[in-house]
Specification:
Length: about 260
Protein backbone atom coordinates (compact mmCIF):
# COMPACT_ATOMS: atom_id res chain seq x y z
CA UNK A 1 0.00 0.00 0.00
CA UNK A 2 2.57 2.57 1.05
CA UNK A 3 6.09 3.27 2.19
CA UNK A 4 7.34 6.06 4.38
CA UNK A 5 8.17 8.08 1.27
CA UNK A 6 5.20 7.35 -0.99
CA UNK A 7 1.52 6.68 -0.41
CA UNK A 8 -0.27 5.02 -3.33
CA UNK A 9 -3.61 3.40 -4.06
CA UNK A 10 -5.11 2.31 -7.38
CA UNK A 11 -2.65 4.42 -9.37
CA UNK A 12 -3.11 7.55 -7.27
CA UNK A 13 0.06 8.68 -5.56
CA UNK A 14 1.28 11.15 -2.94
CA UNK A 15 4.91 11.73 -2.00
CA UNK A 16 6.22 12.37 1.49
CA UNK A 17 6.98 15.95 0.42
CA UNK A 18 3.35 16.60 -0.48
CA UNK A 19 1.99 14.88 2.62
CA UNK A 20 4.41 16.94 4.70
CA UNK A 21 2.58 20.07 3.54
CA UNK A 22 -0.39 19.18 5.75
CA UNK A 23 -0.99 19.25 9.51
CA UNK A 24 0.45 16.40 11.54
CA UNK A 25 -1.98 13.51 11.86
CA UNK A 26 -3.75 14.17 8.55
CA UNK A 27 -5.43 10.95 7.38
CA UNK A 28 -5.09 10.68 3.60
CA UNK A 29 -6.74 7.26 3.33
CA UNK A 30 -10.02 5.79 4.51
CA UNK A 31 -10.63 2.56 6.44
CA UNK A 32 -10.20 0.45 3.30
CA UNK A 33 -6.78 1.93 2.57
CA UNK A 34 -7.89 3.97 -0.45
CA UNK A 35 -7.46 7.71 -0.69
CA UNK A 36 -10.12 9.76 1.06
CA UNK A 37 -12.43 11.34 -1.50
CA UNK A 38 -11.13 14.88 -0.98
CA UNK A 39 -7.55 13.86 -1.81
CA UNK A 40 -8.25 11.88 -4.99
CA UNK A 41 -7.66 14.76 -7.46
CA UNK A 42 -4.48 15.90 -5.68
CA UNK A 43 -3.10 12.36 -5.88
CA UNK A 44 -3.54 12.10 -9.67
CA UNK A 45 -0.27 11.46 -11.51
CA UNK A 46 0.42 13.65 -14.55
CA UNK A 47 -0.51 11.94 -17.82
CA UNK A 48 -1.99 8.84 -16.17
CA UNK A 49 -5.50 7.72 -17.08
CA UNK A 50 -7.92 6.86 -14.27
CA UNK A 51 -10.98 4.72 -14.77
CA UNK A 52 -13.62 4.28 -12.08
CA UNK A 53 -17.34 4.24 -11.44
CA UNK A 54 -18.62 7.65 -10.39
CA UNK A 55 -21.41 8.69 -8.06
CA UNK A 56 -24.72 8.58 -9.92
CA UNK A 57 -25.34 12.24 -10.90
CA UNK A 58 -29.11 11.68 -10.94
CA UNK A 59 -29.52 10.37 -7.40
CA UNK A 60 -26.11 11.43 -6.00
CA UNK A 61 -26.03 7.97 -4.42
CA UNK A 62 -24.86 4.61 -5.69
CA UNK A 63 -22.59 4.34 -8.70
CA UNK A 64 -22.77 5.17 -12.39
CA UNK A 65 -23.74 2.32 -14.72
CA UNK A 66 -20.36 2.41 -16.48
CA UNK A 67 -16.81 3.53 -15.78
CA UNK A 68 -15.73 7.05 -16.69
CA UNK A 69 -12.17 8.11 -17.41
CA UNK A 70 -10.21 11.14 -16.22
CA UNK A 71 -6.61 12.01 -17.04
CA UNK A 72 -4.33 14.53 -15.39
CA UNK A 73 -2.75 17.06 -17.73
CA UNK A 74 -5.06 16.33 -20.66
CA UNK A 75 -6.12 19.31 -22.77
CA UNK A 76 -9.38 17.78 -24.01
CA UNK A 77 -11.84 15.13 -22.91
CA UNK A 78 -11.64 13.17 -26.15
CA UNK A 79 -14.52 11.89 -28.24
CA UNK A 80 -17.84 11.27 -26.51
CA UNK A 81 -20.65 9.32 -28.15
CA UNK A 82 -23.72 11.53 -28.52
CA UNK A 83 -25.69 8.94 -26.53
CA UNK A 84 -23.57 9.69 -23.47
CA UNK A 85 -23.20 13.45 -23.89
CA UNK A 86 -26.00 14.21 -21.43
CA UNK A 87 -24.47 11.89 -18.85
CA UNK A 88 -21.11 13.54 -19.39
CA UNK A 89 -22.45 17.01 -18.58
CA UNK A 90 -24.40 15.76 -15.58
CA UNK A 91 -21.29 14.07 -14.23
CA UNK A 92 -19.18 17.15 -14.94
CA UNK A 93 -21.68 19.37 -13.10
CA UNK A 94 -21.76 17.06 -10.09
CA UNK A 95 -17.96 16.59 -10.09
CA UNK A 96 -17.31 20.32 -10.28
CA UNK A 97 -19.69 20.97 -7.39
CA UNK A 98 -18.05 18.25 -5.29
CA UNK A 99 -14.44 19.00 -6.23
CA UNK A 100 -14.78 22.74 -5.68
CA UNK A 101 -15.81 21.99 -2.08
CA UNK A 102 -12.95 19.51 -1.61
CA UNK A 103 -10.56 22.04 -3.14
CA UNK A 104 -11.52 24.58 -0.48
CA UNK A 105 -11.18 22.01 2.32
CA UNK A 106 -7.72 20.92 1.15
CA UNK A 107 -6.60 24.54 0.84
CA UNK A 108 -7.73 25.29 4.39
CA UNK A 109 -5.76 22.29 5.67
CA UNK A 110 -2.68 23.47 3.80
CA UNK A 111 -3.09 26.98 5.25
CA UNK A 112 -3.32 25.53 8.76
CA UNK A 113 -0.02 23.70 8.26
CA UNK A 114 1.64 26.83 6.85
CA UNK A 115 0.61 28.92 9.86
CA UNK A 116 1.71 26.23 12.29
CA UNK A 117 5.05 26.09 10.47
CA UNK A 118 5.71 29.70 11.41
CA UNK A 119 6.45 28.63 14.99
CA UNK A 120 9.37 26.37 14.08
CA UNK A 121 10.74 28.82 11.51
CA UNK A 122 10.45 31.73 13.99
CA UNK A 123 9.01 33.91 11.22
CA UNK A 124 5.85 34.14 9.15
CA UNK A 125 5.95 31.05 6.93
CA UNK A 126 6.21 32.79 3.56
CA UNK A 127 9.04 33.45 1.12
CA UNK A 128 8.91 37.12 2.12
CA UNK A 129 8.45 36.46 5.86
CA UNK A 130 10.62 38.36 8.32
CA UNK A 131 12.35 36.78 11.30
CA UNK A 132 10.59 37.48 14.58
CA UNK A 133 12.10 39.89 17.04
CA UNK A 134 13.88 37.99 19.85
CA UNK A 135 12.26 37.76 23.27
CA UNK A 136 13.02 40.65 25.59
CA UNK A 137 14.92 40.20 28.83
CA UNK A 138 11.70 41.13 30.63
CA UNK A 139 9.80 38.26 28.96
CA UNK A 140 12.60 35.77 29.58
CA UNK A 141 12.69 36.83 33.25
CA UNK A 142 8.93 36.29 33.61
CA UNK A 143 9.15 32.85 32.04
CA UNK A 144 11.88 31.81 34.41
CA UNK A 145 9.71 33.02 37.26
CA UNK A 146 6.79 30.94 35.95
CA UNK A 147 9.11 27.95 35.33
CA UNK A 148 8.14 27.70 31.67
CA UNK A 149 10.34 27.54 28.56
CA UNK A 150 12.52 30.66 28.50
CA UNK A 151 13.43 30.67 24.79
CA UNK A 152 10.67 29.33 22.50
CA UNK A 153 8.83 32.27 20.99
CA UNK A 154 5.01 32.12 21.17
CA UNK A 155 5.20 28.66 22.74
CA UNK A 156 5.39 29.27 26.47
CA UNK A 157 2.45 26.92 27.16
CA UNK A 158 1.80 25.65 23.62
CA UNK A 159 -1.80 26.92 23.53
CA UNK A 160 -1.38 29.32 20.63
CA UNK A 161 0.06 26.69 18.30
CA UNK A 162 -2.60 24.11 19.17
CA UNK A 163 -5.39 26.70 18.82
CA UNK A 164 -4.92 27.01 15.04
CA UNK A 165 -7.76 25.05 13.46
CA UNK A 166 -9.86 24.87 10.29
CA UNK A 167 -13.56 25.59 10.23
CA UNK A 168 -16.28 23.41 8.76
CA UNK A 169 -16.84 24.83 5.25
CA UNK A 170 -19.96 26.83 4.51
CA UNK A 171 -21.38 25.91 1.14
CA UNK A 172 -24.11 26.98 -1.26
CA UNK A 173 -24.04 25.50 -4.75
CA UNK A 174 -20.61 26.29 -6.17
CA UNK A 175 -19.88 28.89 -3.50
CA UNK A 176 -17.72 27.51 -0.71
CA UNK A 177 -15.81 29.12 2.12
CA UNK A 178 -13.58 27.69 4.83
CA UNK A 179 -11.38 29.54 7.27
CA UNK A 180 -8.39 28.96 9.48
CA UNK A 181 -8.78 30.49 12.92
CA UNK A 182 -7.42 30.48 16.45
CA UNK A 183 -9.88 28.78 18.78
CA UNK A 184 -10.48 30.79 21.99
CA UNK A 185 -11.38 27.55 23.79
CA UNK A 186 -7.73 26.49 23.59
CA UNK A 187 -6.77 29.25 26.04
CA UNK A 188 -7.73 28.09 29.51
CA UNK A 189 -7.41 29.63 32.95
CA UNK A 190 -4.95 27.51 34.84
CA UNK A 191 -1.68 27.93 36.68
CA UNK A 192 1.89 28.12 35.55
CA UNK A 193 4.26 25.32 36.64
CA UNK A 194 5.42 27.72 39.36
CA UNK A 195 1.89 27.86 40.80
CA UNK A 196 1.22 31.44 39.71
CA UNK A 197 -2.25 32.13 38.33
CA UNK A 198 -2.72 32.96 34.65
CA UNK A 199 -5.61 34.47 32.73
CA UNK A 200 -7.56 32.70 30.00
CA UNK A 201 -7.43 35.12 27.07
CA UNK A 202 -7.09 34.47 23.35
CA UNK A 203 -3.94 36.48 22.68
CA UNK A 204 -3.50 35.37 19.05
CA UNK A 205 -4.32 38.76 17.51
CA UNK A 206 -2.06 40.53 20.00
CA UNK A 207 0.96 38.58 18.79
CA UNK A 208 0.00 38.43 15.12
CA UNK A 209 -0.68 42.17 14.77
CA UNK A 210 1.37 43.70 17.59
CA UNK A 211 1.46 47.39 18.31
CA UNK A 212 0.88 48.07 14.58
CA UNK A 213 -2.61 46.69 15.14
CA UNK A 214 -3.08 48.76 18.28
CA UNK A 215 -2.36 46.01 20.80
CA UNK A 216 -0.40 46.18 24.04
CA UNK A 217 0.40 44.12 27.15
CA UNK A 218 -0.52 46.50 29.91
CA UNK A 219 1.98 49.34 29.70
CA UNK A 220 4.13 47.44 27.19
CA UNK A 221 3.66 47.75 23.44
CA UNK A 222 3.04 44.35 21.90
CA UNK A 223 5.79 43.12 19.58
CA UNK A 224 4.43 41.81 16.29
CA UNK A 225 5.38 38.22 15.54
CA UNK A 226 3.17 37.36 12.59
CA UNK A 227 2.23 33.70 12.14
CA UNK A 228 -0.95 34.04 10.02
CA UNK A 229 -1.61 35.95 6.79
CA UNK A 230 -1.17 35.77 3.02
CA UNK A 231 1.66 33.34 2.36
CA UNK A 232 3.43 32.85 -0.97
CA UNK A 233 3.56 29.13 -0.20
CA UNK A 234 -0.23 28.98 0.01
CA UNK A 235 -0.61 30.60 -3.42
CA UNK A 236 1.97 28.26 -4.94
CA UNK A 237 0.18 25.21 -3.55
CA UNK A 238 -3.19 26.44 -4.77
CA UNK A 239 -1.82 26.93 -8.28
CA UNK A 240 -0.27 23.45 -8.25
CA UNK A 241 -3.54 21.59 -7.62
CA UNK A 242 -6.30 23.79 -9.04
CA UNK A 243 -6.30 22.18 -12.49
CA UNK A 244 -6.60 18.67 -11.07
CA UNK A 245 -9.58 19.60 -8.90
CA UNK A 246 -11.48 21.87 -11.28
CA UNK A 247 -10.65 20.33 -14.66
CA UNK A 248 -8.81 17.00 -14.82
CA UNK A 249 -11.17 15.16 -12.46
CA UNK A 250 -14.28 17.01 -13.70
CA UNK A 251 -14.43 16.63 -17.48
CA UNK A 252 -14.65 12.91 -18.10
CA UNK A 253 -14.74 10.46 -20.99
CA UNK A 254 -16.83 7.30 -20.99
CA UNK A 255 -14.73 4.18 -20.67
CA UNK A 256 -14.74 2.28 -23.98
Amino acid sequence: MASRRVLSSRGYRLTAKTMGMFPKGTQFTNMSGHFADKYYPMAMVEGKEYSRFRTNPETRTGKSTQRWVSKSGRTSVGDIDIRYLGQHFKLAYYSLEKNSLNFVIVLSERAQAIFQGSFSKKKFNSADGQLWQPLSEHTISKRKKHKTTPVRMLQEMGELLSSIKTSKPATSGFSHMASVYTDPKAFKATRYPSGHKRRAICYAAIHNEGSQGGYSFGKYRAVRRQFMGHSTYFLAFSNSIIRKYLFDDVFLTRKR
